[in-house]
Design goal:
five-stranded mixed sheet, alpha+beta, five-stranded antiparallel sheet, about 230 residues, 2 domains, OB fold (Dihydrolipoamide Acetyltransferase, E2P)
């Protein structure tokens, strides 16, 4: 891999053709299977790793790579800032044809975890299965889950245990609502069939520690709305 591209993909060049590759970082040496192959560019996925970049670090989130929330956790934060700076500068100069003066480096955030003041979770009835679970006949993907859409799937949800985007009590709230829904047999939303009760939940957490929780439902069921929440 030679460089980073937009959307968290890395890029390589073969005989002048640019190839965009997911789930790798600059410095990785991998074999690639092309999924799209155009005249001047292609997209692919790694199928075999020969060596990993010395810049890699271990992601701190157990859901990294399947959840669509974070894409660059395998790079040190300082490297992330460098690549983002380069992307912005090249986009303005090369694509936008904007004549820029020398750009100052990006001012990084003081905290790289728990920095969001708003997070939206999704309730769904189809759990995203990991690769090792696909061949396990005892694992059923038809489960009520709460989390984020799996990367590249609109109808499958990653069942999040702990998210680092927002400070507590965000995880505790999500898990409590999920448990309440399962306990009361409330149907979680089926996005393909447009059926179900629990659909999404927004959590806003201010620096003053004030908290707002918005739960979006897809059924106007007065019994569920007015009674069961008090349990």
């Amino acid at each position: 891999m030679e460089d980073y591209a937009a959307g968290g993909k890395s890029l390589a060049k073969v005989d002048g053709k640019v190839i965009f590759i997911e789930n790798v970082v600059p410095g990785d040496v991998v074999d690639v299977r092309l999924m799209k192959n155009k005249k001047d560019w292609a997209e692919g996925v790694p199928i075999h790793t020969h060596s990993l970049s010395a810049d890699r670090v271990t992601p701190f989130c157990s859901h990294f790579s399947v959840c669509g929330g974070c894409q660059w956790q395998m790079l040190p934060y300082e490297k992330q800032l460098q690549y983002k700076h380069k992307q912005v500068e090249e986009t303005l100069k090369r694509i936008g044809k904007v004549a820029l003066p020398e750009c100052l480096p990006i001012l990084g955030a003081a905290e790289t975890r728990h920095y969001r003041n708003k997070v939206e979770y999704t309730f769904g009835n189809k759990r995203y299965l990991l690769k090792e679970e696909l061949t396990d006949e005892s694992v059923n993907g038809q489960q009520d889950v709460a989390g984020f859409h799996a990367k590249g799937f609109f109808d499958k949800v990653v069942d999040i245990k702990e998210c680092f985007l927002q400070a507590e009590p965000t995880n505790a709230i999500r898990l409590a609502v999920k448990e309440l829904g399962i306990k009361n047999n409330w149907p979680f939303y089926d996005i393909r069939n447009h059926t179900g009760f629990l659909r999404t939940m927004q959590v806003r957490l201010c620096t003053t520690r004030e908290l707002m929780v918005n739960i979006v439902v897809a059924e106007n069921d007065e019994q569920k709305l007015n009674c069961s929440w008090k349990q």
